[in-house]
Please model this.
Amino acid sequence: MSTRGWYEYHVLDEQNTSRALSMQFYKWGDAVPINALAEWNFLKKKLQENAGRLPIEHLNKMLREQLNELFESLPSHFSLAAFLFILQRAKEEQSPLRRIYFNELPIEQHPDFQLRLTIAEAMAKNGFEPSHYEDSLLNDVVRFIAVGRFIRPWKYYGLTWSVLNWLQYLTQVTSKVEMGSIAGDLYMPRGDIQFIYRFFIWINTTDTLKVDRFAIELCDNRGRNLLYIEDDQEEKEELKEMVQRLDADTYSLAQAEKDFVMIDDHFWGSQCYERL
Model:
């Protein structure tokens, strides 16, 4: 049986003492706490490698252009949190395990091969020439953004899909959703998950697209912190050892509720986890 988790990205603004639930999504398969810590570590390293400033402006511009007035209804700091989600999706799409599915086909018949050619042609035709990064994952994120602008624009999907469904489709070869991180649900499927993972993102006081601090909280499906509940002691000690080894920055929603005021939004609806 696959282990399934629910991910929340909370953006914290110390200057305004405000917080926002900016992104949340479901992960189908391998969503065990050790892997969630590895995902935190992966994103943390990407932020460090780029001095906390990832090329989020490309996504922010694309979303504004595509969604028009709908952009204003997105959660606060959505572009920042969505960029981190898309970066995680890029890592999943590069996984060798996900390419096994197409291995029996000649490379020219691989859907990702054809899509990459189409993306390159569309970028050249439309003069979309963002910086080329040494990091292949950042280049993949830029390609996903190009897909949203030129190949799968919002106007083709807005009548049948939510913004999150569309965002998900920009990051995958086909419309078939496989195991991995999946955006689209506006609420937590409580009966279908084993863990909740909360990522906390402190934005810079002068540049809201720059991250000053990045922390994590690991919880069971009831929202209880795994490092403190009296469950499997052996597993808890293993988790604590990994937290120590990674020097993981830990924080909690309970502390965030004390330190910051929640920004009201209507995007997630009445079934939002925090409002249950």
